[in-house]
Design a protein that fits this description.
Blueprint lengths: L1 H45 L3 H13 L6 H14 L6 E3 L1 H12 L1 E4 L2 E4 L5 E6 L4 H5 L6 E5 L2 E2 L7 H8 L6 E7 L7 E6 L1 E4 L3 E6 L4 E6 L6 H14 L4 E5 L9 H8 L7 E6 L5 E5 L10 E6 L6 H11 L4 E4 L7 E7 L5 E10 L20 H7 L16 E3 L5 E3 L8 E2 L9 H8 L2 H12 L1 H5 L4 H9 L23 E3 L6 E5 L7 E3 L9
Parallel strand pairs: 11-12, 12-15, 15-16, 16-21
Antiparallel strand pairs: 1-18, 2-9, 3-4, 4-5, 5-6, 5-7, 7-8, 10-11, 13-14, 13-18, 17-18, 19-20, 22-23, 23-24
Helix pairs in contact: 7-8, 8-9
């Protein structure tokens, strides 16, 4: 009995000990499993983007309401780029084609320039040899319908109209236009095609020996366009050249390098870039440029940026050109466009560029800099657009060219010859006329009346002559009152002699004067 009693007592104790040991082992095993999961999670969060990916995963699984994580990413990406620098950007898939168009030098469309300042699409210009010209569209046509959609009188957003007119090359769109002298709408079927986007906006001779080029962007074809234009100007007698880069915000890095090569002797440094690791890439002229003997001036202003500054800086630092205008924008960062599989992309800053003397012209910025975009306005407030003496550079930013000229870095290209911003034409009268859209309305009305004469213009001299002939209006009209019945000041009367209407302006003399609407000193 004693033996049985010991067994009965010992057995429960051993069972309890085994149970406790199992629980303890189980707890340790479970805790180790949880620890492993936590360590793995911590490792994921420590990886680049892990926290963002995990947060999006949690939102997708557990947020109280259904949420599109794709929409969250689209909203997040611009801010992510903004925190890097002012020029790293995210481009949504819906905007990428439009953003790339000036750089690619072409797009698919119908080949017209139009305006919608009223509630009607007015064709301002038909691109020569383009789809619209081949189909019969004319300058001055009013587009009333696009395919089966009424577009006149609806005040449609410009983007909506462009989407209706553009499309893949080879596809067809039908526009119904209102044309002067024809009562019914004229339907025109247009087959869309490749439309070139010219970056050389103007090329002509200012004097018998001075040529002029205006370049609006740096697309993949800019160098080729420039060389063709220079060839034409040289055949017309060009020995000196002005290249206008005012308002040119840049483009492909390779284009200003090829352009500068046309004007530089062999072995001249054009530009160099440097990445985060200090790796440096240098670009030199090869001595094969065809315009090394041409005397050169380059025009810049506060909106000339990036590739414009590379070109101007290369010529300035090599003492090859006179830079004229105002201090340029100050963008010295190089972006690389990296696409995503959904059709979107980022333009990520991957290097800084430096002019031949070693100066970076990037103006100061900070991460997530909300004041960066106000720099030009601040220049205006500080009188920098009107006086070179208002612009101050630190001595540490001073560099010297091989020819002994002092140049500065750290905030754009400072011109050799400063030209203040011209405000002489910005009178209150001009601002009111522009604000009321009178200039545009008069221009359209004048163009409609003189379409054949305008189309016959082949030179600047002919255009000047045509416009000068319109400065005087006849005061003889069957509908104008006689001298004994002068109307109130500002009254308008039709004039069949060519001016659409005249203003009455009393004078101190016996004979009142009549002026065209665009030259009257007051608006009625």
């Amino acid at each position: 009995m004693e033996k049985n009693s010991k067994g009965s007592i010992l057995t429960p104790i051993l069972l309890s000990a085994a149970l406790v040991l199992g629980v303890v082992i189980g707890l340790f095993a479970g805790r180790n499993s949880v620890d492993r999961r936590l360590r793995n999670l911590a490792g994921e969060l420590d990886s680049p983007g892990g926290k963002i990916s995990y947060a999006l995963s949690l939102i997708d699984r557990y947020y109280v309401d259904p949420v599109s994580t794709d929409s969250l990413v689209e909203a997040l990406m611009p801010d992510l780029m903004w925190y890097l620098d002012p020029h790293s950007v995210y481009i949504p898939a819906s905007e990428l084609a439009e953003v790339n168009m000036p750089l690619e030098g072409e797009f698919d469309g119908i080949g017209i320039t139009f305006n919608m300042s009223t509630d009607t699409i007015i064709v301002l210009n038909v691109i020569p040899q383009g789809p619209s010209q081949k189909a019969g569209v004319q300058n001055g046509d009013r587009i009333i319908r696009i395919d089966d959609s009424l577009v006149a009188g609806r005040k449609l957003p410009m983007d909506d109209v462009m989407k209706m007119l553009r499309g893949p090359r080879g596809t067809q769109v039908t526009v119904s236009v209102q044309r002067k002298g024809i009562d019914d709408l004229v339907p025109i079927a247009i087959v869309r095609d490749k439309i070139p986007v010219k970056s050389v906006d103007a090329a002509y001779m200012l004097t018998p020996d001075i040529g002029f080029l205006r370049i609006t962007t740096f697309s993949q074809y800019t160098h080729d366009e420039m060389v063709r234009a220079l060839g034409e100007l040289r055949r017309e007698g060009m020995r000196k050249l002005i290249i206008d880069l005012r308002g040119n915000t840049g483009g492909y890095l390779g284009q200003p390098i090829r352009m500068a090569n046309e004007f530089l002797a062999d072995g001249r440094l054009i530009v160099y870039t440097e990445d985060r690791n200090g790796d440096r890439m240098e670009e030199y002229s090869d001595g094969k440029g065809g315009y090394q003997d041409v005397e050169l001036a380059v025009l810049i202003d506060e909106n000339s940026a990036s590739s414009s500054e590379i070109f101007a800086g290369a010529l300035q630092d090599n003492d090859r050109a006179t830079i004229i205008g105002r201090r340029s924008y100050g963008k010295g960062l190089v972006q690389q466009q990296i696409p995503f599989t959904d059709g979107s992309a980022i333009r990520l800053t991957t290097a800084r560029y430096y002019t031949p003397t070693g100066r970076s012209i990037q103006k100061p910025y900070t991460s997530a800099d909300s004041t960066y975009g106000y720099d030009i306005y601040n220049r205006y407030l500080h009188n920098e657009l009107f006086s070179a003496d208002s612009i101050h550079f630190d001595d540490s930013l001073k560099f010297v060219t091989p020819g002994g000229k002092t140049v500065y870095g750290g905030g754009g290209i400072m011109p050799d010859l400063f030209v203040p911003l011209d405000t002489t034409e910005m009178t209150p009268y001009y601002m009111e006329v522009a604000g009321r859209n009178i200039l545009y309305r008069y221009t359209m009305e004048y163009a409609d009346r003189n379409r054949e004469k305008i189309n016959a213009v082949e030179s600047i001299a002919q255009l000047d002559s045509l416009l000068d002939a319109d400065t005087e209006c006849s005061t003889t009209s069957s509908v104008m009152p006689n001298a004994t019945a002068w109307p109130p000041t500002g009254a308008r009367y039709a004039n069949p002699s060519g001016c659409s209407e005249l203003f009455y302006e009393p004078t101190s003399g016996a004979t009142p004067r009549w002026r065209r609407p665009d030259s009257t000193p007051t608006i009625t």
